[in-house]
Amino acid sequence: MAVPTIYGRLVEDWERLSSDRQVRLRAVLAQMRLMVSGSAALPVQTLEAWQNISGHTLLERYGMTEMGMALSNPLQGHAKLEAWVFHYRE
Q1: Alpha-carbon dihedral sign for residues 28, 30, 35, 40
Q2: CA–CA gap between residue 67 and residue 17 (Å, rounded)
Q3: What is the pLDDT of residues 71-80, one digit of tens each?
Q4: What is the per-residue pLDDT across 8-56, written as a single tens digit (0 to 9) for each?
Q5: What b/e string do you get for 10-29 counting C-beta neighbours within 10 Å, with b at 16 or more?
Q6: What number of other Cβ atoms are within 10 A of residue 85's Cβ?
Q7: Cα–Cα distance between 82 and 2 in angstroms, integer?
Q8: Helix, strand, coil fractions of the chain, as percent rounded to 5
């Protein structure tokens, strides 16, 4: 899991590697089961470049804060704010 900026940097670093090193790294990447990008929009150019490098399509996801809000508020009825509000005693 990484943000799109990290994948962009990995693509840049890939382009500087020797072809022998790329072959070895590609074999390692092929063994991975899941690669995830999130917390920002993934540029199509980065998605395509990473797919060419690794053979995997990056899965895009919501960030934890965005998803927390989506899951914590009911579709119908009122939100239970007590869970999110801290009560301070003087």
Answers
A1: positive
A2: 37
A3: 666 667 766 6
A4: 999 999 999 999 999 999 999 999 999 999 888 889 999 999 999 999 9
A5: bbeebeeeeeeeeeebeeeb
A6: 8
A7: 33
A8: 55, 10, 40
